[in-house]
Design a protein that fits this description.
12 helices; alpha/beta; eight-stranded mixed β-sheet
Amino acid sequence: MKLFHLPSSKSPARRPIIGLALGSGSARGLAHIGVLRALEEAGIEANVIAGTSIGALVGAVYAGGRIRELEAEFRRFDWKTIGSMFDPVFPRSGLINGRKIEGFIKSHLPARTFDELPIPFRAVATDLGTGHEVILADGDLLSAVRASISVPGILTPVNHDGRILLDGGLVNPVPVSVARALGADIVIAVDLNHDIVSGRSAAKRASSRRDDFETPSHAERNAFKQAASRVKSRLRSSPNIAAKRFRAMLERERPPSMFEVLTASLHIMEVRITESRLVLEKPEVLIRPPLSGFHLMEFDRADELISLGYRAAQDPLAELARRLNS
């Protein structure tokens, strides 16, 4: 971890405000849970939290004090659980409607509105109409988190207060600026995507399950098969020519790799945006777990992801704790 000067204050008794900036990364976001465990072990209290995409989900749950329940739920995930979350729609603005995912999120959110959270929290989304970053700060918490995780082309966008909102990773994958705007003197940022494009991480080299990040995981293949089966059943009775062509495509041994194309494109974009923003919006602590061997939907690998997040955060957060207490 780089050295930094703790912020000065006219009142020597005032401790610096600690902010968390939890980044996007789909299933890799389970590493956030490990980071939060290391944060608690270091005795560091987060005063404000900003989250993008999966970081918004984990951040909202943590802000309400229910992160252990969410962790236990994810540790029970297998490919059947993941497949059960798929509620495909055709044709729509995404492959998955998201109602089942909304139900899952709602069951774990500790509050109905932002104001009910014990720790100030913000979620980041993208306005489809303007391309602007949207900081969600009040009102319905479920709608805000659902908007922030709406991966383009996969999960349908959300109509939130008259705006069509998509995944916040399109504009601010690691929301350091949002944590800073909440008053944070020290920002602890978690970047989940830094090695997805640029190289092979330790986790990827050690994994015998994957040869290439573009190869779909077992969970992804089975979840897609379930979704495809449901879509085909809806299309069988349709006389529409386009529906017949789509049905024929689904009958192949393996459909074109739409997930790979979408996710690889998003990875490249988010990595480049993060690189640019972190040059100007530098956090005091930057945690980057080695996660390039993990896929979009691999929530069935929670144990590994949480462990990698925890290990990556231990030393930097222990060092921060020493400096705060010196």
